[in-house]
Design brief:
Blueprint: H1 4-16, H2 21-39, H3 47-58, H4 63-73, E1 83-90, E2 96-103, H5 106-118, E3 123-124, E4 134-143, H6 151-161, E5 163-168, E6 172-177, H7 182-191, E7 198-205, E8 209-210, H8 213-228, E9 232-237, E10 239-240
Parallel strand pairs: 8-10
Antiparallel strand pairs: 1-2, 1-3, 2-9, 4-6, 4-7, 5-6
Length: 243
């Protein structure tokens, strides 16, 4: 998992300074629509929808907008022709790039994403070209500043609940789980009054590719542009660089 922590730190910092509220709302609404379409409109019986609604509330998405998104997802309102895709490609230096896509027009999205890659030293690849380099795992982030807990105490709680690994970073602890243990570990940690800064099922790179200088700058620019695209929900890479 080497290198993921730096990526995760960059991602968290970026999320905190994301001032493009309209794009954030669009992404949150899409996730609610898809979650409702796949699992129904009742968050009590649809964990993905429940999580999407919680994230939307945290971002102050209006209540009416949340309800409309749910109704679109369940077919009670029109305009829910949304589908979920995975795109894969290569960045500068052969860095593997994996993206979760949510779109109502796959041809438009593919063309736009391909253009971003080609203009920034990369290329969009075929399905399966890089996904084998990643493992699907639960990732929980616990900020040290807002929680009075040390690594040993957290490790006991998390491992007993089924976590696989814990890493201590400068500002936060990162807890890794198998996807099937994800909910149990979240509950065990939250039952101890510990606040989670982030909790998601993520694609964790098995190894990393370290870039320096101009190539590293190009890779960061490519990640920024992909993350800013309205139809891209998540960007995972095996990119690493020195602090």
């Amino acid at each position: 998992m080497a290198g993921h922590s730096k990526w995760a730190t960059i991602k968290r910092k970026k999320a905190k300074v994301d001032a493009q509220r309209g794009k954030v709302f669009t992404r949150l609404s899409k996730e609610i629509i898809l979650a409702a379409r796949l699992g129904g409109g009742d968050p009590a019986g649809n964990m993905r929808l429940k999580t999407a609604i919680e994230k939307a509330k945290e971002a102050n998405l209006p209540k009416d907008s949340i309800q409309r998104a749910i109704m679109k997802g369940t077919g009670q309102l029109s305009g829910s022709n949304m589908e979920e895709l995975v795109y894969e490609g290569y960045g500068p230096g052969g860095v593997a790039v994996l993206m979760n896509i949510m779109t109502d027009n796959r041809n438009r999205t593919a063309g736009e994403v391909r253009h971003i890659f080609s203009k920034n030293g990369g290329n969009l690849g075929e399905s399966g070209c890089v996904s084998w380099m990643f493992d699907r795992k639960g990732l929980l982030v616990i900020e040290k500043e807002s929680n009075n807990i040390d690594e040993e105490e957290l490790m006991m709680i998390a491992l007993e609940a089924g976590a696989e690994d814990i890493k201590e970073e400068e500002e936060a602890f990162e807890v890794y789980t198998a996807p099937e243990s994800f909910a149990d570990v979240i509950k065990a940690i939250e039952d101890q009054g510990i606040t989670l800064e982030e909790a998601e099922i993520a694609m964790i790179p098995q190894t990393t590719v370290k870039l320096e200088g101009a190539e590293a700058e190009k890779m960061i620019k490519l990640i920024d542009l992909l993350e800013e695209h309205d139809d891209i929900d998540d960007v995972y890479t095996n990119f690493d660089m020195d602090e």
